[in-house]
Amino acid sequence: MNHRPKLTSAGRPLTFEVEAINERGESLHTPIAGEHPLTLYLDKREIVTLMTLGQAPEALTLGYLRNQRLVNSIEEIAAVQVDWETDSVAVTTRKVANGRDAKLKEKLRKRTVTTGCGQGTMFGDLMEEIDSITLRDDVRLTEETLYALLDAVRRHETIYKSAGAVHGCALAAGAEILYFVEDVGRHNAVDAIAGHMWLDAVDGSDKIFYTTGRLTSEMVIKAAQMRIPFLVSRSGLTEMGHQIAGRVGITMLGRAVNKHYLLFTGKHRFVKTVMPTMLA
Fold first, then answer.
1. What SS3 state is found at 75?
2. Reduced to 3 states, what is the DSSP secondary structure of residue 101?
3. In this structure, how many other beta carbons lie within 10 angstroms of the beta carbon of residue 219?
4. What is the pTM of this model?
């Protein structure tokens, strides 16, 4: 049974209007994306300060704890309380598991600052878990479904269209978008989706993850942790991201825009169904 923790609902305004001067020297009010510091405390221990748009701070917090393996299950969490007056989020657990404090100290000691907007942070040796992750090999992504998903993402109303300066991530079942989150960093957006999945007990084993950002090692590791077999990006990828995807068996498609893509890994899961003459 999935036990939902007590949550605040403290999303911030996502855009703010400021005055700008255009190329003709005209003054106009223009929306820009929000950006706020959010310091995460786990049972009164300071963990990290995230720079975030503030769209879904509770889901972001839960997803961060999940993907960093700082908390093992949603059932362990009693409450997530966001307070923007102090730019903080306090997470309390139901009880302190045996040895958790020592394990947490060890994870926090091993801190890696990753590439990305605002820089991401990984605690502990998450790479050590990669070989223990098993993804389903009985699911397939057809080219037709890929094109339908890219079209759905293109039509989705986004903060990027009005203000720019954000990355977007989506979790999809086929071409149906289940969650769409934008943030100033792509790693925040993927964490927020992980938090939503945790809260709603959504299984990722047959889902597709889409991101506007590049596919770095951190992004691939997080997708693997959520057991998601398909990773699609509008952007490119890094060498380490490619290596990890091949190692864990993720089907990864990059530079996916409209009816164009590059298939980098996982050929056995991707089915080409559209004739070349149909490509525009």
1. helix
2. helix
3. 30
4. 0.87
